[in-house]
Amino acid sequence: MKPSLVLKMGQQLTMTPQLQQAIRLLQLSTLDLQQEIQEALDSNPMLEREEDGDDFDNSDPMAEGTETVASETAPKQESYDEPTPAAENLEDGDWGERIPNELPVDTAWEDIYQTSASSLPSNDDDEWDFTSRTSAGVSLQSHLLWQLNLSPMSDTDRLIGETLIDCINDQGYLEESLEEILDSFDPELEIELDEIEVVLHRIQQFEPSGVGARDLRECLLLQLRQPAQPTPWLEQARYLIENHLEVLASRDYSLLMRRMKIKEDELRQVIELIQSLNPRPGSQIETSEPEYVVPDVIVRKHNERWLVELNQDAIPRLRVNAQYAGFVKRADSSADNTFMRNQLQEARWFIKSLLSRNETLMKVATQIVEHQKGFLEYGDEAMKPLVLHDIAEAVGMHESTISRVTTQKYMHTPRGIYELKYFFSSHVSTSEGGECSSTAIRAIIKKLVAAENQKKPLSDSKIAGLLEAQGIQVARRTVAKYRESLGIAPSSERKRLI
């Protein structure tokens, strides 16, 4: 068979740059999309943000002449010649006074001149909290080093303290033994084991209480060492932790009552005091920055109907800059005109991709609300089974598109803010031939555990039996999986004294 040239005609799907951009914008979260929009505004002069009060053109951004339709609102020129009210105050008020050549010793600027900081709440204001106005977290090590620097000690002890703090993990426990820490020092320093232990005792007095402990027993005892106020059952709690902590972990309360020679009500109060302690004191220090969730869709009920609308405050509206678009000449092929023409086309593509994203998100959210009206009315127990295929068929899109549009997108409902993927769940067959959502089963398990007898908590087999009595056929291992996903401990660890 000799080679030959053959001409064929066929069709194939090609991922154009415009389609790739639309898909990429579709799967971005609101915060990521805001950053993407800001980068587009910084790089493309043809794009501008619509400010409040501006006349916005709702015509098709891909249509020809878009740049001339909105050209009637040209950018405003700001004048800096007229004096502002602040400048007038500077001329007439105390700020216009000259700074004296010499000031009294220990004089602060605020003692003589007004500052913008005077508008801030004073330190005497009980409602003002500095930590609530700071977004950056503080690590446990930096918090301990700050306290160490405030403690009077020698240079050698400070070096030992810094080494000990480096060996404390995020939970607040000392990971290395004192012997290993001693071996890490230079022998020429002539540091002894007793010195390290003394410095460790100093660190164990720092906040948070219980930090620097070598095990759980020592951590709990440190927190009971210096209570802020007289505490009943303090001695009994110390005795229990020192001698019978393993028995308490096994929840053998009858053995504890015999060994400590106390009654059940007294043991319950001792255990309540121990449970008020923090076994992980380092977790009190917030080390990560707070993460904020901005809902993409808002759902509300009006006149017995559920309304779905996009969160317009989360995504800024864009348009083509009319003044710059008017500079583009159709017949000009110069480099500058070609650059502006390309930027104009990219701006149109970007705006169309944003409109397509909003339309797709609106369609998917509307169908989710249509399927999950029971959840909005009655809660998790009324959640219906829902998979991506159901929404894909309803809106006429592929399942991959539905997966992208529901990733990191949030819906604000009267019951709270939920990720769109929360409304999707598998189903379990019922005895009547129907289906029950796994989310509804989790809600029922949580309700059963909350109402159980704490002296005799429900086992997984018992919960499975109670679900079967309601017509829900669930195996014991499935109940255990749902229970673990809810963060509910096994029955042996939920046993309590009433």
Main attributes?
single chain; 498 residues; alpha+beta; Arc Repressor Mutant, subunit A; two-stranded antiparallel sheet; 21 helices; transferase; RNA_pol_sigma_54_core-bd; RNA_pol_sigma_54_DNA-bd; RNA polymerase sigma-54 factor
Walk me through this protein's architecture.
The protein has 21 helices and eight strands. The chain is an alpha+beta fold. The protein has a four-stranded mixed β-sheet with strand order 3-2-5-6. The longest helix has 37 residues. The radius of gyration is 34 Å and the shape is extended.
| Strand residues, percent | 5-15%
What letter string, H or E per element, gives the SSE order?
HHEHHHHHHHHHHHEEEHHHHHEEEEHHH
Total number of beta strands: 8
Class of secondary structure makeup = alpha+beta
* Helix count, DSSP H or I runs of 4 or more residues: 21
> Mean pLDDT score, rounded?
80
Assembly type of the chains comes to: single chain
Q: Indicate the percent of residues in helices.
A: 40-55%
Terminal residue distance: 90 Å
Low-pLDDT sequence parts: 56-97, 115-135
